[in-house]
Structures are given as C-alpha cells and as structure tokens.
C-alpha cells in the first residue's frame, strides 16, 4: 500500500514594504511654477514702467501710486481670501485666483488704446483687480505645504515656493525687457496673461489634497502623518463650515509670537517690493542703463536671491534634523539673511555699475536666505484656521506693497536720488532682525483658548 505524504503549503514570501511615493514634491513643483507666474505678473508693471511713465507723463509720486495699486487691493482681500480657502478648500479657490489675475493682467495691455486720465484710471483699476485676485495665492501655498509636508521638510518646501519670486525675475525680466524693446510695452501684459490662464487649467487637473490624490500611496501618507503634516486639511464638506472670523483674528493678533512674525514680514516684504517696482527704474534712472540692459541686469540679483532662498530652507531643515529647536532653526537664517540684505546701502557710495550689481546680488541673496516667513506660518498656524492665519500674515506683509512704492516715490520727488530709498529699505531689514530676536520668542503651533 502506497502511502501518500501530506504536503503543507509553502508560506508566501513577505513582500518588502512599499517605498513611499514622492507626490508631495510634484505638488511643490506646481506651486513653484504658479508662484513664478504670480510674481512675474506683479513685475510686469515695473518692466513696462519707464515706457508708461513717458507715455502717460507721470511724475515719480504718481508712478509710485500706480505701482502701489496692486498692494491696496491685495492687502484688503487677504482675509476674505483666507476665509475662502478655509471654507471652500485650496484647489478651487486657487484655481479662480490664477485664472482671474491672469485675465486682468492680459487686459492691462488694452490700456494702450486709451489716452490721458482714462488710461491712468484703467491702469490703476486693473492693477487693483490683479491684486484682489492674487490674494489667496500665498495663504494657499502655506495651507497646501502644511497638508503635504512633514515639519522637517517644511522649511525647504516654503523656501522653494517663496524663491519663485526671484526665479520669476531670472526667467521673465530678460524676456519682458526684450518684449518691451521689440514689440512695445503692451506685449508684456498679453504674453504673461495668456500664460497664466493656461496654467490655471493645469492646476485644476493636477492638484489634490493628500487623501484625494490618485498617485499617493499609503507609505507616503504614513510618512506625512507621522511627520506632522495636516493631511486631512482638505477633507470635510466645503461650503457649510461656519468660521468665527473675528474672534479668531482677535486671538491671532493677541499672540506676541504671531504679531512679531507679522511685523517682521512687513519689513522683509519691503525689500521684495523695492525689487518688484522701483529697482528697474533705479537701474535706468540712477545708473543710466537702457530698459533692455536693465531687464538682463535685474536677473543677476534675482539669481542670487533664488539661490539664497533655496539655501535658507536647506539650512533651516538641516538644523532641525541635527537637533536644533524649531525657533533656532527658523530664526538663524532669517537674522543672518537680513544682515546681508542691509548691504544694499553700500550702493550709495560706489560708482561702478558692476560693483552696484554685485552688492545688490549680495543683498538679495541675504533676503532670499531670510525669507522663511511662510515656513514659520506653516509651523505656527492653527489647523482650524490656516487660511485666515496665512491671510493675516500676508495682510501685514503686503502692506509693504502699498507703502514701499509710495514712500520711495516721495523720497525721489524730494531728493531727486535713490540714496534715501536704499537707506529706507535697508532700515526695514534691521527692524525685521529686531522683531525675530526680541519679539517673537519661541516658535510653536498656536492653539486657540
């Protein structure tokens, strides 16, 4: 009799754990591209500015007010923009933001069909509309990085999307200078507006929350959750949540830490808006360059600012990984960067253009290193109101979009020189240092009482 041997089934070999996907970096790449277009659209007016100034016969003060139009509406729309982000989510709110600011930029090219006061009024009103439409953009960036990035990667993420402001100049200032030189100032607005409208459609197709994204895997979600990312920020029913706006704002403004961050951001953003508005005029008027040359020269400090922005985020995250506290890791690049930014005052004492460009490059490298405000917002914003917190931060910061162009316009009108303007901008860098050293205190996530 033949015996049959019972065979036990072989155990299936254990599969290695799935490697985490890197969808968060794709999301960041889209944020970077959108923010690059955002800042390029803000800068269109400065590149076209010298030609518009001559065409419309504007004084320095009048040009300062035209430059500031963006800032008035941008600041006033910050809190409504933050409220929209919290209520309807980042994806749909940001889509309308991109589409509308690009449409209004495109329409600015039509100002050339008007004359006199009508042209000035149309230019001012369209810049107001661009500012209002852009209001949700940076609070949206902060909100999305809070959802998509763990704490120890958030400095890099915020530095990368924030450094897009310099990359915008690197990429688009030479292009826009060439467009003005070859095809007239109107072409700048047509080209940039059309580009943004196309990007809004890409955004709608590509951006989702961590839980909704079709390409993210469980391993990446676990990495995000364990690292402190707010992965459920985009969940929940939109359009029905009740947000107690004013009590929230009162508590945020009652925090010494947040108030110090907000005032510091105002000072840092003063440097940004000098660069976005008066810097090309400085190169043409004070240094005698052509607009074509100024467009290319403006790209050099922008490259330095871009590199500084990336480096600031890397330094901050590396310090965190090596055991530094969140406060030390965020404040060190900010304070060091602002010290370097103050070097622009040296330009008042040199004659050679190449030295001016070198010093401005050093100053904007420092400004880039210190531009970690949005990382601090991601670290400190209450999860219940990230949009409002970012909107309040941006309200303070972009008040500089109003005050900087106007203040410099009055300085130029009174002195006929940019010397006082550079001192004004450098002094703001010093105040930012004092805020982070003596007002902010420990950086931590704010909790409502």
Automatic annotation (TrEMBL):
Gene3D superfamilies: MFS general substrate transporter like domains (1.20.1250.20). Pfam families: MFS_1. CDD domains: MFS_ExuT_GudP_like. The keyword Cell membrane applies. It is a multi-pass membrane protein. Its main location: membrane. It is found in: Cell membrane. The chain crosses the membrane at residues 65-85, 92-113, 159-181, 187-204, 259-279, 291-314, 334-351, 357-377, 389-412, 418-439. Keywords: Cell membrane, Membrane, Transmembrane, Transmembrane helix. Residues 27-444 form the Major facilitator superfamily (MFS) profile domain. The keyword Heme does not apply. This is MFS transporter.
């Amino acid at each position: 009799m033949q015996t049959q041997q019972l065979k036990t089934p072989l155990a299936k070999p254990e599969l290695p754990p799935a490697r985490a996907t890197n969808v968060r970096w794709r999301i960041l790449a889209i944020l970077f591209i959108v923010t690059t277009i955002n800042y390029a659209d803000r800068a269109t007016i400065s590149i076209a500015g010298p030609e518009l100034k001559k065409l419309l016969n504007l004084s320095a003060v009048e040009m300062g007010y035209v430059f500031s139009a963006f800032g008035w509406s941008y600041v006033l729309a910050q809190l409504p923009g933050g409220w929209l982000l919290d209520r309807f989510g980042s994806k749909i709110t940001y889509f309308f933001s991109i589409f509308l600011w690009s449409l209004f930029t495109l329409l600015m090219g039509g100002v050339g069909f008007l004359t006199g006061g009508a042209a000035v009024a149309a230019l001012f009103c369209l810049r107001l509309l661009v500012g209002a439409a852009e209001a949700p953009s940076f609070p949206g960036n902060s909100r999305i990085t809070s959802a998509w990035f763990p704490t120890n990667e958030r400095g890099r993420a915020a530095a990368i999307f924030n450094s897009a402001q310099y990359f915008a100049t690197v990429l688009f200032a030479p292009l826009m200078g060439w467009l003005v030189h070859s095809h007239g100032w109107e072409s700048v607005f047509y080209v940039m507006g059309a580009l943004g409208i196309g990007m809004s459609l890409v955004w709608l197709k590509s951006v989702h929350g961590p839980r909704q994204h079709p390409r993210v895997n469980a391993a990446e979600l676990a990495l995000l959750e364990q690292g402190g990312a707010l992965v459920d920020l985009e969940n929940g029913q939109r359009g029905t949540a009740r947000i107690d706006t004013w009590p929230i704002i009162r508590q945020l403004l009652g925090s010494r830490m947040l108030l110090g961050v907000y005032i510091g951001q105002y000072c840092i953003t003063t440097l940004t808006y000098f660069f976005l508005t008066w810097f090309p005029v400085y190169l043409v008027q004070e240094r005698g360059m052509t607009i074509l040359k100024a467009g290319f020269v403006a790209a050099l400090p922008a490259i330095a600012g871009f590199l500084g922005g990336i480096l600031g985020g890397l330094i901050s995250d590396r310090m965190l990984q090596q055991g530094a506290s969140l406060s030390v890791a965020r404040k060190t690049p900010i304070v060091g960067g602002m010290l370097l930014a103050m070097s622009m005052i040296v330009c008042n004492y040199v004659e050679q253009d190449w030295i001016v460009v070198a010093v401005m490059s050093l100053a904007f490298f420092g400004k880039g290193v210190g531009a970690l405000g949005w990382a601090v917002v991601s670290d400190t914003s209450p999860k219940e109101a990230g949009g409002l917190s970012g909107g309040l931060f941006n309200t303070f910061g972009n008040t500089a979009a109003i005050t900087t162009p106007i203040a410099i316009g009055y300085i130029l009108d009174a002195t006929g020189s940019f010397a006082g303007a550079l001192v004004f901008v450098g002094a703001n860098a010093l105040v930012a240092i004092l805020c982070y050293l003596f007002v902010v205190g420990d950086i931590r996530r704010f909790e409502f009482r």
